[in-house]
Write a structure and sequence with these properties.
The protein has 532 residues and is α+β, with helices and mostly antiparallel strands. Helix content is 21%, strand content 22%. The chain contains eleven helices and 27 strands. The chain has helices at 49-62, 85-94, 126-138, 194-212, 230-239, 252-256, 291-296, 380-393, 416-421, 451-457, 512-520, and strands at residues 30-32, 35-40, 46-48, 66-69, 75-80, 109-111, 151-154, 167-171, 177-182, 185-190, 244-249, 268-269, 275-276, 282-283, 321-322, 327-329, 335-337, 358-361, 367-372, 377-379, 397-400, 405-409, 435-437, 468-471, 485-491, 494-499, 502-508. It has a six-stranded mixed β-sheet with strand order 6-7-8-9-10-11, covered by helices on one side. It starts with 29 loop residues before the first strand and ends in a 12-residue tail after the last helix.
Length: 532
Amino acid sequence: MPSAPSNRPDRDETPVRDRGDACPGALRLHTADDGALARVRVPAGVLSARQAYALADAAERLGDGALDITSRGNLQLRGLGRGCGGELAAHLDAAGLLPAPAHERVRNVVASPLSGLDGRGHLDVQPLVRELDALLCASERATALSGRFLFALDDGRGDMAGLGADVMLLAEPGGARVRVLLGEQALEVGTQDGARALLLAAEAFLDAADAGGTRAWRVRELPPAYTVSAAELSRRAAAAGVAVLASHGASASDRSGRGADADVGPPARGADAEPATAGAGLPEGPGGPSPARARDGAPSGGPAVADASATAGAGAPAHGPEQGGGTTASASGVVHASGGPTGPWPGPGGEPAIPVPGVVDGPAGAVSLHVGVTLGRMRVAQWRLLARTAETYGTGELRVTPWRGVVLPGVSGALLPALADAGLVTGPDSPWVGVGACTGRPGCAKSLADVRADATARVAAGAGGLPVYWSGCERRCGHPRGAWVDVVATGEGRYDLTAPGVPRHTVPLTELADALAAARSNSTDPTERPTK
């Protein structure tokens, strides 16, 4: 098995920042060609139905009537009118979506979206997410984090390892211990101390960034001489009263999200008596990577991470800004979501960790739904339908995923046909599974094509094969990690196409469907690095 993606620093480049990051937020709007853009951070993508309705109302009244899901499971409103910032802020605050205005851009937290729902993983990480968010919002030091810094909490199934987080928590077998990774260093602490250890690691990064003088935004940008050691992490933890059970350099199994045990078994009960049920995205918009760095981020052919192919959108970005397999059928013919079609981290039954659209089976007959969102963009009518379904038939909660999907806890498969009729992706056989795109024209001034229209016209090309991601320019905003087919507009009706085993070459739009089909079905080992 190839080594897994990690949050290790990128030693090939140590940028020196001469400004703070320009990442948009709910209070700091970004001006685009189609109006202002607001990004609402939603830790672990968890929303109440009431909050979902509030977002739909805001998009309809103030924006373009749609919501975008980003590759970190956050939500974006586009087409906002001038001067609406104050009204939007008041609306979000009333819905409980701005608990700490000074911290609203640093609440970048992703977590295993099926944690606590499907009986897999080593513990339910959702309580730790809530604790981390409360700690972040109470920490004055945390306001210095960039809007690009990312926390991830993986319940042991390995689904977060491909998102390139700066600080990552990995649950250990039994649920009593967790590992906290910062770059190449790892600490083992009790689960009850996991959230505090994550914040301590982030604060250690901030001190190292200050000492290094480069104003680093991400862990991988720290100069080698200023990376944080395991000994320093242990010292800080001890000073804060956190008991360190072990510390060491992060191994490949740590970074894969598999921890010390390759088998993620059924739920266990953690030592803290709480039931234990159950990776480098940069934000979208200004301040994205340079074209040279974006080209370096073309499909690396690294491990075949299931970031992109698991749902209707391609997965989390490696260098580009945040944009917006193992399935079985029941006797009723309903597709059950047990894992994505690709990915190096199988679950206990051999299925990959990332869920596909369909029914999510849980312990004792419990079920949930996971639906995909075409190109990560929903009209408010679709969003309201999801909120109403969660409120009426489920727990009243929605979980937005980094793979441009939405999980509805407690909702049965009987609701899938109505969701499919509304244009949502409800099964793994949809041609939209594994297809993603940036905003493109007309919303982005840098885009050289209307990539969403071009992707829609060719969605069936190579369906079921490698993920494909359409980009309007060399920045490749929101592109997935791992192996994928890279399609980049060059202008004048042409695209550059690159894939594992397929050198970069220019293809006219009229021939692109055939080229895509061939590239997505290429049998080349996806761990091979493609020639560009």
